[in-house]
Amino acid sequence: MASSSEGSGDALLPDFPRGPLQAYRARASFSWKELALFLEGEDMLRLKKTIFSALEDDPLFARPGGGDLPMEKYRELNFLRCRWVFEHDLLRVEDMLQSPLKVRALVNCLGMYDWSLAAKFFLHMLVFGSAIYNSGSERHFKYIPKIFNMEIFGCFALTELSHGTNTKAIRTTAHYDPTTEEFIIHSPDFEAAKFWVGNMGKTATHAVVFAQLHTPGGGCHGLHAFVVQIRDPKTLLPMPGVMVGDIGKKLGQNGLDNGFAMFHQVRIPRQDLLNRAGDVTPEGTYVTPFKQWRLLPYLAAAYALDHFSKSLFLDLAELQQGWLGKDTSARQAELGREIHALASASKPLASWTAQRGIQECREACGGHGYLAMNRLGHLRDDNDPNCTYEGDNNVLLQQTSNYLLSLLTRRTQGGAHCKSPLKTVDFLEAYPDILGQRFEVPSLEDCLDSSVPLAAYEWLVCYLLRESDQKLNQEKRSGSNDFEARNNCQVYYCRSLALAFLELTVVRRFHEHTHQPSVPPPLRAVLRRLSALYGLWSLSQHTALLYRGGYFSGEQAGKMIETAILDLCSQLKDDAVALVDVIAPPDFVLDSPIGRADGELYKNLWGTILQEGKVLERASWWPQFSANKPVIGSSKSKL
Amino acid sequence: MASSSEGSGDALLPDFPRGPLQAYRARASFSWKELALFLEGEDMLRLKKTIFSALEDDPLFARPGGGDLPMEKYRELNFLRCRWVFEHDLLRVEDMLQSPLKVRALVNCLGMYDWSLAAKFFLHMLVFGSAIYNSGSERHFKYIPKIFNMEIFGCFALTELSHGTNTKAIRTTAHYDPTTEEFIIHSPDFEAAKFWVGNMGKTATHAVVFAQLHTPGGGCHGLHAFVVQIRDPKTLLPMPGVMVGDIGKKLGQNGLDNGFAMFHQVRIPRQDLLNRAGDVTPEGTYVTPFKQWRLLPYLAAAYALDHFSKSLFLDLAELQQGWLGKDTSARQAELGREIHALASASKPLASWTAQRGIQECREACGGHGYLAMNRLGHLRDDNDPNCTYEGDNNVLLQQTSNYLLSLLTRRTQGGAHCKSPLKTVDFLEAYPDILGQRFEVPSLEDCLDSSVPLAAYEWLVCYLLRESDQKLNQEKRSGSNDFEARNNCQVYYCRSLALAFLELTVVRRFHEHTHQPSVPPPLRAVLRRLSALYGLWSLSQHTALLYRGGYFSGEQAGKMIETAILDLCSQLKDDAVALVDVIAPPDFVLDSPIGRADGELYKNLWGTILQEGKVLERASWWPQFSANKPVIGSSKSKL
């Protein structure tokens, strides 16, 4: 579509190169140039274009061919690129105050190129710089020009090794010595080391350090911020009393040097208390969320899915034997179809559960989960292709729903029995009766067994089967072709049907396994709790459908399921470590300092960090900081 | 707890090292050794222990210190480790048939050490090997001993560059030539190259290749499998007519050499058709799921969240100005609280949405999304720390819910007004009225505007606020201390409250932005659709609560929201590319062959793959395969 603004926008917003997307672009109901101008305005578009072009035109920003850069080389490049930003004077104080959106645009543009670069720049200029600027004291303004010409380089040292978010638990101290009018900054032990601080690893010369302020006789006055010099800007060597180093490789953003520091009785002048920085410490009481609530359902899922995987593997071996024995019976063919339907939905369920579980562990471990050495990134990356190979998960789920829909058709047309070799669909015999059932659990105690989700899942599969069938017929009647009809049914019907059916089967097999008489009595309680937790937690993802179809009604049903899940988590809390012990691979195989069986996570972390090369050594490219200072705006004419 | 089996299990299941976890282990309600024995049985535990100990005892399996191995070194090591498994004869044919769970245990143990190793072994022995063994023909059994002694190395070549899962679309051909009794295997073009095949990159000598079978005059007989020799086992150089190479670095599993191959009129004997391998091609019609349905809501989210981020950034600038101007008014303090509440929930919402969106893109791109060069892994890894730094998402959400709960307390206690500088909580003035509202949308058409989710969100926030408040009071009355009370309320109440409040604010601001009179008329439709889609899609994640609290009742409400989402996706389908064009960074910045603006993804992929070093070259360590053949079981005595 033509528009009046298109002409003027052409230099600013040139057309995209021709190619296969041209046909799709032509279908748009609007002019993309008009929308870009409306959303951003010409000024902002011009700024972004200027920044992007400047990056693209400078070989310093060429993407490395042939794989990843070594970490030290990457950090050097990232530093040089950060210095380049200063030389091009892309951000001036006037801009920061007058056009805050330009600050955002610059950081976003740098970030789209590489978030390591945006983070390095942002932490120095805007986090370290603002902390000092916002202190409101003229006595700190001496630092501002030094920040702009990179005479010093800053970082923001809040978090400690064993305390991340919880600012009340921070243990670095600042004792006031009135005789010398100094503060004495001190780290009581290794666990109180400042940790994860961006720019601290190799480049920062100054840190805004948060510490508990103590005065003689006056006790503790809470958390305050101090400017502490940590390295000599001329040599990048650490200042006396400061042990400072690099925490090592992370899952991403490896151009940024995150670091640690311990202070041994480091004295700083009284004036370097930042009197207004208290603003950054938030108010209120903090509660670290119940991490075991986040992870216990995944632990239960590991047990339930492992049992299912074993049992399906044995089913498959039976099928294989039949093939090799040239079994051509109807039962063998039916067994093949049933196993195909189960296997097609197992990979999606297992790979997605694993992906979510690993991410939840990663986040529950905070920053430490993001350290490469702890290998949660490896686990996640190695599991990820399971979502794709041997068939995209969503495509595979159609196999399962097609199988179930064909059973329904058979049942309706011929009145044939729904009996399968592995009995996973036998409950469909009672299809109409099951559809008439409702959630009727008298008390919370009755809800704490996997028979409750089992019954609910049988209803859910019947309901989704009926709905999918109706939706497909309705789509076909309305003139959709087979492709469209299946497509429109897939998202909310067939996909949920396939997952619900598999979850039902997993819950059923684990329920039967944990309720069989041969379970040793001391193990019954814990196994049944796992079974109930997995069943209820999985089921709770379908609560909307349970209400919509009328299986649940009233507030109590949903609340009871939630309360039961929390109760089971609470009952399993004390068993959690032992449950992990049962299934954990040996330390050597796990190879994760925070995951070792001895539980000494901080000792193990330090051990591994200090084993890495050049942890405490200054960067080989230190003269790039110390000698070659940027001349602000020296390259500005190029823009 | 003591148990009779513990004594015998001690050698098999030694105690864990002492450490901080000891106290937690002591709390367990059961003996972990008894559970391990019950679940696995002594035989299986012994097998696993044997495998793990063998790995740990051999320096070949030492974990590399000091960061990641170069890719070629890693692939060599992975090959040597795979050969080691054969030398130790950990899996015999008898075992495969008699104790299938032992096969599973071996693959799992190797996988827990490194999934690259398990995949390499599994693809050769069990996928390639089974395809040949299951063909049921004695004429193919000659390959079996060669598979076991690694005289040949196998891969399974099904997927092609432009067709992954959809087996019907495979375009490699096998024309039968009756004069020579040969099949001629041929790749019609680059897009039909076999692609992503594990073991094919550097090691495989033979491939099970899937191709469309053609006979002279008889047309196409559909997909069949053929054994094709692709490299000379003596030199690992490619066979004539075969172009074979390595597809390069992936997000994970880099010990496995995934490869590509093109066949130029390669002749193989008639006998190398695998007559039974048709079993692996599944039945039924396939539908590639509507990928734009998966991604369009995230595109809408990108627009809505970007607008919100801009507006919040301006609010923050206003706050900053107030600070610098020493504004000590009540309004300035209130503005600080409001922005703190919004910002605390923004990072969780934005970082989780981005994480899910990137993963959805990764999966929607299939295997190509898993290739490192396409950089979806970089995006995911660089976004991931946003879930953690400046505070764990779950901890931050408490800030927001505390703010809202304090407003409710103020309102109840003093009857004070709920008016805030940015007006985000002004709707709470009508708290009791809003709680009485119900979903009343007469028709689907009326549902296609963001005013619908806006109203629903206002109800939802009021409902969650009431519920959170009640739950907190109930917990406190029942004797929980403050920590427990907040903890028990967090999971299902306060966390949802904070997210719902922020989503409401994002929807409201984007609704107002897209409905303002200054929007150019040609852009109105598309912007309002984006606004409605984001609002309804976000809202649909809370459907269970909407039913539970009675805002929704009956089947139609839930169905209408789902239909509206699909309708909006369908309406936005043709605008999708142009909407991406508006916000996309330049190709240079994006640096992703499948993401370039020209849309020539296959050309761009090939261009990048062939730029990598040593793509077509045989591995430098080729004599490790060709000369040093494993003697099966030669090292078995060690176990």
Automatic annotation (TrEMBL), chains A, B:
Coiled-coil zones: none
Acyl-CoA oxidase/dehydrogenase middle domain location: 155-264
GO biological process: one example: fatty acid beta-oxidation using acyl-CoA oxidase
CC terms in the record's Gene Ontology section: peroxisome
Catalytic site positions: E390 (proton acceptor)
Catalytic activity: tetracosanoyl-CoA + O2 = (2E)-tetracosenoyl-CoA + H2O2; hexadecanoyl-CoA + O2 = (2E)-hexadecenoyl-CoA + H2O2; hexadecanedioyl-CoA + O2 = (2E)-hexadecenedioyl-CoA + H2O2; a 2,3-saturated acyl-CoA + O2 = a (2E)-enoyl-CoA + H2O2
Positions of FAD binding: T159, G198
GO MF annotations in UniProt: FAD binding; fatty acid binding; pristanoyl-CoA oxidase activity
Cofactor(s) this protein cannot do without: FAD
Superkingdom of the organism of origin: Eukaryota
Domain called Acyl-CoA oxidase C-alpha1: residue spans: 291-405
Main location: other
Subcellular location field: Peroxisome
Pathway in which this enzyme or protein is active: Lipid metabolism; peroxisomal fatty acid beta-oxidation
Family: Belongs to the acyl-CoA oxidase family.
Function, in words: Oxidizes the CoA-esters of 2-methyl-branched fatty acids.
Name this protein carries in UniProt: Acyl-coenzyme A oxidase
Organism: Equus asinus (Donkey)
Lineage: Eukaryota, Metazoa, Chordata, Craniata, Vertebrata
Recorded name of the encoding gene: ACOX3
